[in-house]
Design a protein that fits this description.
There is one protein chain. The chain is α/β, with parallel strands linked by helices. The chain folds into three domains: about 1-75, no CATH class; about 90-100 and about 340-515, Rossmann fold (3-Layer(aba) Sandwich), CATH 3.40.50.300; about 110-330, Rossmann fold (3-Layer(aba) Sandwich). It has helices at about 15-25, 30-45, 110, 115-125, 130-140, 155-175, 195-210, 220-225, 240-250, 265-270, 275-280, 315-320, 355-370, 380-390, 405-420, 450-460, 480-495, 505-515; strands spanning about 50-55, 60, 90, 145-150, 185-190, 215, 235-240, 260-265, 305-310, 330, 345-350, 375, 400, 425, 440-445, 470-475. The strands form two sheets. A nine-stranded mixed β-sheet has the order 2-1-3-11-16-15-12-14-13, with helices on both faces. A seven-stranded parallel β-sheet has the order 6-7-5-8-9-4-10. Helix 6 crosses helix 7. It is globular and about 80 Å long. It is an enzyme of class 3 (hydrolase). GO terms for molecular function: ATP binding; hydrolase activity; nucleic acid binding; RNA helicase activity. Keywords: ATP-binding, Helicase, Hydrolase, Nucleotide-binding. InterPro entries: DEAD/DEAH_box_helicase_dom (IPR011545), Helicase_ATP-bd (IPR014001), Helicase_C-like (IPR001650), P-loop_NTPase (IPR027417), RNA_helicase_DEAD_Q_motif (IPR014014).
Length: about 525
């Protein structure tokens, strides 16, 4: 059809869906004048403040610009596989509201049923109103529903499950006397020790005023606990998955009275690295739907809450082995699986030899402005090298990776949190669950190759309570990195959620091992 000649005008310009629909009309229905008018409208889309800004202005993307369903969308990163593209860049600019703590003005913690003692603690933390994920999450959990809480990082998911859990524990304490030591009413499971400690600290803020006993268990000391166990009253047990599996299997903890299980960072727990241990544990419980306005603790069933910033496509397949999925109520937010509109991101196409100089330049600029910087890399060796490289060039820097001793690692993170150092080099160990509200500049020295890792890393800045003018820099070198960047750019241009939000830690580890041993 001759009308299709106008699907593409110029090498890099693609018509909007409206123009595409006109192009599908027979020639006798579309005059040349109408085609010219529609083309001009497309050219006159708001071009004052582009959402995506590139070296080649013809590839800029503007607010209100759209593309046809079958149109070829122009990408600034399209030619980045070619060696001559080194030095190119594009920027996704701030096109949304600044991320302040979004609250629900018509709902209060008190109306949700949160105990008055807990509300006082929240007020001391300057949290006066619940966020949307907390409003819906607290309601569903208190009704006894199995619940999936999925929201962007920093949206308040921890308190969304912790506050109703505290109320449930208070109810259970008042109705049923404790029968055994080391027999918790609730278990919060995490993939990492750092996250377990962080959740435990948050829970202990309420323990004294509510009379709730919180115990935190992490790896590194399980053998000593097995050989010389201690027995105490425990209401909430917060534990990393590895330590919990050993201590339950050996009988140190009795799970016969557990009424609620929380999987924090559920997407990671359901990945290949952990799901065998997790499923073995979950199969020991009976997850049945509960009814009624309030959770009936007397029923022989366990409530489960799943918490994550991403929902992998494999979640249903894996969980279906242990949990009736039709009983799980999904509570999500509008920004799930989307880039943060209030945090600008700049993508640099660099050769590997160009990255160190650019790293030093960006980090020194941030340090001069006193902007705390978090740098991510894909390998432990790179993480350590970045720290040494910056120190040799006069930049005080700490590093964080999974090969470190746990207590040494925890000390490094606290150095950064306390402001003793303003630059932290980390692997993906620091990308999930940790409260990095100080971070103002996030830099991906190695760009991730999985979408879930990209989302979690970017979520370390621009959080509720973060400073203003946070920003993200990405170094992009390899073919897999470029492929992911192109998918991100395409989603932004089309105004769609990020696709294929999956991660597979085991495959990542195998890929890196094989790459290192080529």
């Amino acid at each position: 059809m001759k009308g299709l000649w106008c699907l593409r005008i110029g090498q890099n310009h693609v018509l909007s869906s409206r123009l595409f629909s006109v192009a599908r009309k027979p020639d006798f229905e579309v005059s040349r004048k109408e085609r010219r008018k529609l083309y001009q409208e497309e050219r006159n889309v708001q071009k004052k403040d582009p959402i995506i800004s590139c070296k080649n202005e013809d590839l800029n993307h503007y607010k209100g610009q759209s593309y046809g369903k079958f149109a070829v969308v122009p990408l600034a990163s399209k030619g980045w596989l070619h060696r001559k593209s080194k030095g190119d860049f594009f920027e996704i600019k701030n096109y949304g509201e600044v991320q302040t703590r979004e609250t629900s003005t018509d709902t209060s913690f008190q109306s949700l049923g949160v105990p008055d003692e807990a509300i006082k603690v929240l007020e001391e933390m300057e949290i006066n109103e619940p966020s949307p994920i907390q409003v819906d999450g607290i309601k569903h959990i208190l009704k006894g529903h199995n619940t999936l809480l999925a929201a962007e990082t920093g949206s308040g998911k921890t308190f969304a499950y912790l506050l109703p859990l505290l109320k449930q524990i208070c109810t259970y304490q008042s109705t049923t006397p404790r029968q055994k030591m080391n027999s918790p009413y609730a278990i919060v499971i995490t993939p990492s020790r750092e996250l377990a400690d962080q959740i435990g600290e948050n829970a202990k803020l309420f323990s004294e005023c509510l009379g709730i006993n919180v115990e935190v268990v992490t790896g590194g000391k399980t053998k000593r606990m097995i050989l010389s166990p201690t027995f105490k009253e425990i209401d909430i047990l917060v534990a990393s998955i590895g330590a919990l599996s050993k201590l339950i299997t050996t009988g140190i903890y009795d799970i016969s009275h557990v009424k609620h299980i929380v999987l924090d960072e559920a997407d990671t727990l359901l990945d290949d690295s952990f799901n065998s241990k997790l499923l073995y544990l979950l199969h020991r419980f009976s997850f049945l739907p509960t009814t009624g306005a309030e959770l009936q603790f007397q029923k022989p069933c366990v409530q489960i809450s799943l918490v994550s910033a991403t929902i992998p496509t494999s979640m249903n397949e894996i969980l279906g082995e242990a949990i009736p999925l039709d009983t799980v109520h999904r509570v999500t937010t509008k920004h799930l699986h989307c880039i943060q509109p209030h945090v600008p991101q700049k993508f640099f196409r660099l050769g590997r030899s160009q990255k160190p100089a650019e790293l030093l330049n960006l980090v020194k600029s941030s340090v001069q402005r006193r902007d705390p910087v978090l740098i991510f890399s894909n390998k432990t060796a790179t993480c350590d090298w970045i720290s040494m490289f910056l120190k040799e060039n006069g930049v005080k820097c700490s590093n964080l990776n999974g090969d470190m001793n746990y207590y040494f690692r925890l000390g490094k993170f606290r150095e950064f949190q306390s402001g003793e150092v303003d630059v932290l080099s980390s692997t993906d160990m620091g990308s999930r669950g940790l409260d990095t509200v100080r971070v103002k500049h996030l830099l991906n020295y190695d760009f991730p190759i999985y979408m879930a890792d990209y989302i979690h890393r970017c979520g370390r800045t621009g959080r509720y309570g973060s400073p203003e003018n946070c920003h993200i820099s990405h170094f992009v070198s390899g073919a897999l990195e470029i492929d992911l960047v192109q998918r991100i750019e395409l989603a932004v241009r089309r105004g769609e959620p990020l696709p294929n939000v999956n991660a597979n830690i085991r495959r990542i580890m195998e890929h890196r091992y094989n790459k290192n041993n080529l």
